[in-house]
Write a structure and sequence with these properties.
Blueprint (H helix, E strand, L loop, with lengths): L10 H19 L1 E4 L3 E7 L4 E2 L9 E4 L5 E6 L3 E10 L5 E12 L4 H7 L4 H18 L4 H5 L3 H15 L5 E12 L2 H51 L2 H16 L4 E5 L8 E4 L2
Antiparallel strand pairs: 1-4, 2-3, 2-5, 6-7, 7-8, 9-10
Helix pairs in contact: 3-5
Amino acid sequence: MAQQPQLQLPKGIIGIAAIAIIALMFFSKSTVTINSGEAGVLYKTFGGGVVTDEPPLGEGFHLILPWNKVYVYEVRQQELFEKMKVLSSNGLEIQIDASAWYEPVYNDLGNLHQSLGEGYLQRVIQPAIRSAARSVVGRYTPEQLYSSKRDAIQDEIYEETKKILEKQYVQLNEVLVRDVTLPNTIKDAIERKLKQEQESLEYEFRLVTAAKEAEKVIIEAKGKAESNRILSASLTDKILQDKGIDATLKLSESPNSKVVIVGGKDGLPLILGNN
């Protein structure tokens, strides 16, 4: 049986194909694309390692040497949710639900990568916010945390966390305390106490209102008495006589009156009518 001839490629074509494959691999290792909201840290294998004295690689397409590496970080603001169990000033366990808004410092991205690496969230941010929460909540009683101090502890946790992260190449933008959960027995006791205080305040308000109303009545009565006293002091016999005369004269003008006698009893005019 005759053998079929085998197809043989020219040696030049095989060499060109090999070179093309190597070139393609070389090119793929020499390019990197940074997406929106990201930045890259360049690592020079033969040039001193992590580049910290230059800005990070920005968004877009970049050419690098094939033996170097690029570590990509998200540089947008990010959010960390934390549920923490901490102790109040009297040793009761309190649960705090909080979130932190943070982002890496852009121009220090190389230092962040060199000192903390890609796990910087677990290495510094979480421990920092937990430590700050324990420190701040430990200054307050459950009553204060439940009623009036939530905004205060939020601000204090932010300030203390920010101080811890100040030299860690991370920017803390905000800390939000979303919920403070107390043990049910403590919560019920606080609510009963607050209700009693509210009822006491309402009772005191009613007492104050009643006292003011009584004071108003007394003042009005005193004013009326003083007015009568002044009026009585001003009514002399002469004034009364004159007023009586004026009144009698007006009555004499009535069609029912007949005779007016001046000089009646007490010097007042006397009217004699039909009756």
